[in-house]
Structures
1.
Amino acid sequence: MTQRSAAPRPVRADGAPSVGPAGHRTPSFQEMWRELLPVGRHPDSGGYRRYAWTGADAECRAWFKEQAEARGLAYEVDRNGNQWAWLGDPTAGDAVVTGSHLDSVPDGGAFDGPLGVVSSFAALDELRGRGTRFDKPLAIVNFGDEEGARFGLACVGSRLTAGQLTVEQAHRLTDADGVTLPRAMEAAGYDPDAIGADPERLARIGAFVELHVEQGRALDLSGDRVGIASAIWPHGRWRFDFRGEANHAGTTRLVDRRDPMLSYAETVLAARREAALAGAVATFGKISVEPNGVNAIPSLVRGWLDSRAADQGTLDTVVGGIEKAAREYADAHGIDLDVVRESFTPVVEFDHALRDELGRLLGKDTGLTVPVLGTGAGHDAGILSGSIPTAMLFVRNPTGVSHSPAESAAEDDCLAGVHALADVLEGLART
Ligand code: HGY
Ligand code: MN
Ligand code: MN
């Protein structure tokens, strides 16, 4: 169904800076990219550790504010700590919003999130260069804590805004060091008592378009630089607590042990089996062990399951099957098991009218069809889709690797993404 999308027009491919409204020079895509690149990058792994409300996060946020100010945009932080940069009157209504997030997973790549934010500023510069007149307000947003790397829940900034996370639930979120979200926000200079649903803000938005690096190889395989999102698989995170009995690794006979690591390990294999049977995915990517000594049988193994499937029924079957297997293994080893669902995001079908409009805008000069892809990855655009029309653009990722320092995208493809986003914003922000 996919034909090649249009080759990118060579706008600012030289990396030359653009000129802002007051004649000020604004950094090019490449300059913005280079500036962000060292922020929060771990010297050993080469991956990013930009966790919510940490120093690296503050540096990213300072960068966003500078970009807004360099372009003469009205900068504001909303009650949930999300950053906004406005062109036009934020209160006028029917605003066209673009953006993404700047935080990362542990040792994440450079593109997941930042590509959308950098491309948003670059797209605005391109439109100004084209002399585009906007009939609607335009905003660029950086949603806070999208990855949930620190507090375990993804998309905290957009969930709070959309009322999908209550203040009480948010206040209970705690990181691995026992620091609660309110204390972390306070330490970063934000007011945790101000957080909560923001329906007035959402009511002023007519459309949100998030550009994101593709987290798969569909575009690489189809030979397209840019695609449009169709849907996000339902997904969630479950915590499995296997409790046994700590004991000496050298003196405790195998038959006398209540070792929770065994049931945990068997559960990991069961997850793989259930997911494969159902055509879904299931991952135990995070584990904590107590007391965590080489020569001690663990008393507690806590493993976090991330599972996703194309539809709710399949996901329920997979997670139900994994839990059933885990209980059988736990019983066999005299282990107590608790399973807690920590978060869940139902299937997201992006707004069909907006999606079709994106396809029309991107194909209008060439008559070519832009591929429409589903994804297993969660996004702020997915969270907001319950409140406002949202859409996503994906930029080709040649290896498909994501949530890893090896994540990549070619510069030409990134610039094609900027042009596509500019075309979309131009079309949407005019009446
Ligand atoms: O985990 C996810 O799907 C996302 O990247 N937050
Ligand atoms: Mn991610
Ligand atoms: Mn992302």
2.
Amino acid sequence: MSDAAPRRAYYVTTPIYYVNDKPHIGHAYTTLACDVLARFKRLDGFDVRFQTGTDEHGQKVEKSAKAAGSDPRSFTDAGSQKFCDLLAFMNFTADDFIRTTEARHINSAQAIWRAIAKAGDIYLGHYEGWYAVRDEAFYAEDEVKPGPNGKMVGPSGAEVEWVKEPSYFFRLSAWQDRLLAFYASHPDFILPESRRNEVVSFVKAGLRDLSVSRTSFTWGIPVPDAPGHVMYVWLDALTNYITAAGYPDTNSASFRTYWPADLHMIGKDILRFHAVYWPAFLMAAGIAPPRRVFAHGWILNKGEKMSKSLGNVLSPHELVNEFGLDAVRYCLLREVPFGQDGYIGRETIIARINGDLANDLGNLAQRVLSFIAKNGGAQVPQPGPLSSADQALIGAAEKLLDTVRLELDRQAFHRALEAVWLVIGDANRYIDKQAPWTLRKTDPARMATVLYVTIETLRRIAILLQPFMPSSAARILDQLAVSARDFAVLAPGQGLVAGTPLPPPAGVFPRFVEAADAGR
Ligand code: MSP
């Protein structure tokens, strides 16, 4: 491959989930965003690696296991399985699921430790300060304050405790200038921009060395050659991203293909770990930082971040069982501008199902396909010469791939969907205006053209919607008798073939009717 050849690998990661948590819609949200990108890139011809897994060490997990009357090993086996099950349930196409208790990861975490230590960036000292077990984070004096029940809390609201113990430190203070230089030369490293500005100000304000080992508990990866010390769980957890790519074997085909990762998708609560500590650890170890960290917002419920500790979680299972998987996948990415906080609840989902899915897309597919079944010989119609209205609609549909690609390359899922729905709106207006039901008597040849143009537009839309709503898009494509489904079939000159028999149509997006109203 020459240097000029475009990069055709794409490595996208979710954070690894705390194994003591019960999966909720916030977790599903991060993974869904990655799944859509992974599916999109595969259809676009990339060699994709989509990585997820569970974060299994640390004081929080040790405490949770004890509270559950279990030992950490069986506790983490059961907890990890719940996140594995979520993948299947949400139709997520992860290529690998990593557990930080696996030998491949322990080996990798110890290797990065050795590499950083060899570079002179780790020293032995003594930590005395605040620690939040819930966040697994150290906080400075000016970051904590008295909480509602009199106990001190950190910026996230998590209780902090005073910790005093021998500890190894990472020389983070020495990385300030190099981090700032890195952000300056990689303006897209942190997105959205507001998050990038936050990180830059944080780093400019000065960095303190970071405690990277603990001695007051044992559930962690042993620090090499330092009995009694286990690695700070964030250094352990962040390293999963390179473990999964094959580290410490930096010459392996996998590492050379996939590292640096294209994208670490995270929630905004864990930005500092990913955008400050992680690139500093990597650069200290002589490894290139990832290309991008995108911090999305929170799914709120009753105005607060949905989380187990607040007891306000929406379960993916309940939502999916009530509304169907694809509708939930669609709503999560359409309702809230990606990057911002937002609310998702039953009423917002119902409005999107009945509006965008049933009225707009479902209706478009249903009316044109049933019309063809009844009046068009149940086959792809033979188009005649195209009018300017036909060309305008097909032209808008043809431009969609570029638009969606561009928006997804900036993780603007909502804008990608908005662009597709503009064309769905155009197609619905087109069919109203062209009125094939009238043309059936007056001009059957023109009717055939109008039907062709509409279902060709529908084909393009369905191909592009596959990453978002895989099963529903597949059902539309089945009804169009389309078997070739990657983005190569969106090239100019490709289109439905007249005369191809079409199977009997069936509605893909029924309206949602509240159970209490269903019998009326
Ligand atoms: N274990 C760490 C990540 C280590 S990565 C090296 C962790 N795990 S977590 O399970 O608490 O969170 C995982 C992801 O879920 C984070 O990106 C977090 O922002 C996201 N969400 C958890 N609750 C959320 C919402 N209510 N809304 C949106 N996403 C949120 O952090």
3.
Amino acid sequence: MSGFQELVFSGVQPTGNLHLGNYLGAIKKFVALQDSNDCIYCVVDLHSLTAQLVHDDLAAQTRSITAAFLASGIDPRKHIVFNQSRVMQHAELAWIFNCVARIGWMNRMTQFKDKAGKDRENASLGLLAYPSLMAADILVYRATHVPVGEDQKQHLELTRDIAQKFNNDFSDRIASLGVGVEMKVGDETVNGFFPITEPVIGGPAARIMSLRDGSKKMSKSDPSDLSRINLTDDADTISKKIKKAKTDPDALPGEVDGLKDRPEAENLVGIYAGLADTTKEKVLAEYGGRQFSEFKPALADLAVEKLAPIAGEMRRISADHAYVDSVLRDGGERAGARAEATMKTVREIIGLLDN
Ligand code: TYM
């Protein structure tokens, strides 16, 4: 993406326990990307108010997600780790984006429809505007790449739409102030203030499904704890959940095509591939023709080997409030300086008096 400096941004909500889907779909990618990129990783506490305003302990949840980032290997000195509410420019830009985005765009969001359910009139206005705050999180740093699981794809498309509309609506002011950057969008070269962000989605674990029902995504809000592996589960619990995972009676196929219409089998193979940093093809080359009674213990051993050290580190880091808070404070200061630099120009582009 030519003119913009490459920057990775992503966020995780501090609601409920982190699970294997969050880890394989997002956090593991955060860790991989930090080797060759400038990265900002955010605990999005303001987003967590959209579904539930009053939390038992939002601070503890925020620290726990931060501990998961650090325990997984994110380096908070080389990169930035902070909680969203410390940097008020996210909310400021979200307000401006509320005036850029159209209500129709928000109404089409499948996550809004799912979360609001039948009683849409009674959902919070924040839940409807959620994607606008998400766009602000990303664009207040003019981030170019956003690693997420498959379920966030539609929100990232909306982020691109918001950036594009802002760039178009203010194209004259952006040009006269000389603050535009040339970028390639598809085959076209365009000039704009905000980048058209690229989602980083993919690999065998972009959409991890429930262990109890291969048609439902693994989720923090599933009432059955057996449906997910939490990052804090101990070795016995992980093994038990994998043993109890729903499967079908057939042996594993030798090829990926053979996983069609076998969602539970496909999910377990995807989890294995995600944990082992390999592909479904390679997992099937090894386990094709074997029964789940053989595959499940191998998967359980692998999951324990990869996840138990993270759980241990999470417990150790979570207990050290002073350390976690100092990471967030320091990250917040560095993020805030960058966000303010963007907002100064945004205020200028819009014509808000800010002197
Ligand atoms: P959240 O907190 O629901 O989830 C955090 C990350 O985990 C991914 N994920 C999954 N990946 C694979 N399989 C699953 N079953 C699964 N469940 C969750 C999510 O895709 C996500 O990457 N809206 C975001 C938070 C957010 C954000 C942002 C993300 C706010 N602002 C800016 C990126 C950039 C969310 O609710 O994620």
